[in-house]
Amino acid sequence: MSDAQQWEVRFSNTHRLPYFYNTASNQSSWEPPAGLSEDDIRQLPGAHQFQQQAANAASGAGGASSDKVRASHLLVKHRGSRRPSSWKEQNITRSQEEAEQTIRQHIDALGPNPSAEEFGKLASVHSDCSSASKGGDLGFFGRGQMQKPFEEATYALPVGGLSDIINTESGTHVILRTA
């Protein structure tokens, strides 16, 4: 089986973005797999989702608009999370209460007005979300694109505001609204 035959394009309901999934290794990536040409990518199952996202980005659709917000987050998953595994830990066994205690410690460490840089450094090391590679940055999103408690908390924050503990199906979060 060639490398291209192992990959397909799937769609993240949480982030409302396409991603690449390797069916042989169960690896996923937001970026196109190394070694695949543009032609290879166009032939992947589900490739229309990636091509549509690229077309939206090129036309300016999907960028910032007045009804969109931008946020970074730090996620701590627990055994009750929708997918209790992460890039850091294959089998997460901590309780929700332990996850909340960990988030509380991060909130206390950040203080009331953390900079996006401070938050990003912490998220890049401690977050269970793949967005850790981007300092927890989720980019711009609109209503209906995130789980309801996450969306409501983000929209309620002022720019630069830090949330308290937020629980979703994905786990326990602290959110920094950045725009």
UniProtKB/TrEMBL annotation:
Segments forming domain WW: 7-35
Reactions catalysed: [protein]-peptidylproline (omega=180) = [protein]-peptidylproline (omega=0)
UniProt cross-references to InterPro entries, sorted A to Z: PPIase_dom_sf, PPIase_Pin1, PPIase_PpiC, PPIase_PpiC_CS, WW_dom, WW_dom_sf
GO cellular component annotations of the record: cytosol; nucleus
Key word Protein biosynthesis present: no
GO molecular function terms noted in the UniProt entry: peptidyl-prolyl cis-trans isomerase activity
GO BP annotation list: positive regulation of transcription initiation by RNA polymerase II
Listed EC numbers: 5.2.1.8
Superkingdom of the source species: Eukaryota
Enzyme class, spelled out: isomerase
Xref: SUPFAM superfamilies: FKBP-like (SSF54534), WW domain (SSF51045)
Domain PpiC: 66-179
UniProt entry keywords in alphabetical sequence: Isomerase, Rotamase
Entries under PANTHER family matching the protein: PEPTIDYL-PROLYL CIS-TRANS ISOMERASE, PEPTIDYL-PROLYL CIS-TRANS ISOMERASE-RELATED
Official protein name in the record: Peptidyl-prolyl cis-trans isomerase
Naturally occurring in which organism (per UniProt): Tilletia caries (wheat bunt fungus)
